[in-house]
């Protein structure tokens, strides 16, 4: 039997922390709690969580700064909690490398499902046969869930890896943002700017000139397409 995933929940609202903890424990996860960014970073430094549920509006060190510092040293999945009116902060969080977000007020059951979905993708088992995708000096090892460019390993979040692997698996095929949300994120609905932000982050990591992308092309009026080298 697999060990339960360790999830750190960071929120300054005691009621939110308690409700989220109960639902995540019911889903089989081991849960730790923090009510501020400083304590969260200290806990993460001592432990190795499998996922962090992170509220953006925290006292002291806010959620954006926690995410920024976390991404400097770790690719641990992050699911953000944001208020309805915090679109700018939500996009900023995605730009910093958050994997998913849930908007307050939220369904605790939906949050638990999102957490489980991100954890499943992060711990996807190896395929029956080894599969490695390449495009020039870009190499994506699907079973190992690693990617490298010019021999140097890329620091990709769970969602960034999934998006790159999906696009590279379908070279020359254009996908709408809605299709990518469904096929990469597993969402039937959601903010399509999530896709835009992740594409931008990927371009910054795999394109020599992100402003003039060669690999991930924008298909105007449609979405995105991966153009493999001839």
UniProtKB/TrEMBL annotation:
SUPFAM superfamilies in UniProt: CheY-like (SSF52172)
Pfam families named in the record: Response_reg, Trans_reg_C
Residue stretches making up the OmpR/PhoB-type domain: 130-228
PTM annotation (4-aspartylphosphate): residues: 55
Every Response regulatory domain range: 6-119
Annotated DNA-binding residue span(s): 130-228
Keywords from the named record: DNA-binding, Phosphoprotein, Transcription, Transcription regulation
Keyword Transcription applies: yes
Signal peptide: none
Record carries keyword Cytoplasm: no
InterPro entries referenced in this protein's UniProt entry, alphabetically: CheY-like_superfamily (IPR011006), OmpR/PhoB-type_DNA-bd (IPR001867), Sig_transdc_resp-reg_receiver (IPR001789), WalR-like (IPR039420), WH-like_DNA-bd_sf (IPR036388)
Gene3D superfamilies reported for this sequence: 3.40.50.2300, 6.10.250.690, Winged helix-like DNA-binding domain superfamily/Winged helix DNA-binding domain
Stated name of the protein: Response regulator transcription factor
């Amino acid at each position: 039997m697999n060990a339960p995933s360790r999830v750190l929940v960071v929120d300054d609202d005691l009621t939110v922390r308690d409700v989220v903890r109960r639902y995540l424990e019911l889903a089989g996860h081991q849960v730790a709690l923090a009510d501020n960014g400083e304590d969260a970073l200290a806990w993460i430094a001592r432990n190795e969580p499998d996922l962090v549920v992170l509220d953006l509006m925290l006292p002291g060190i806010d959620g954006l700064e926690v995410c920024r510092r976390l991404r400097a040293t770790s690719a641990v999945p992050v699911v953000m909690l944001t208020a309805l009116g915090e679109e700018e902060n939500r996009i900023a969080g995605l730009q910093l490398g958050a994997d998913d977000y849930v908007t307050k007020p939220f369904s605790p059951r939906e949050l638990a499902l999102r957490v489980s979905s991100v954890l499943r993708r992060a711990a996807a088992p190896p395929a029956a046969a080894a599969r490695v995708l390449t495009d020039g000096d870009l190499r994506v090892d699907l079973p190992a869930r690693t990617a490298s460019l010019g021999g140097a390993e890329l620091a990709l979040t769970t969602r960034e890896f999934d998006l790159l692997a999906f696009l590279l698996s379908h070279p020359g095929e254009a996908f709408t943002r809605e299709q990518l949300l469904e096929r990469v994120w597993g969402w039937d609905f959601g903010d399509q700017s999530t896709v835009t932000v992740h594409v931008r982050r990927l371009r910054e990591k795999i394109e020599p000139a992100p402003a003039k992308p060669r690999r991930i092309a924008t298909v105007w009026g449609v979405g995105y397409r991966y153009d493999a080298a001839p």
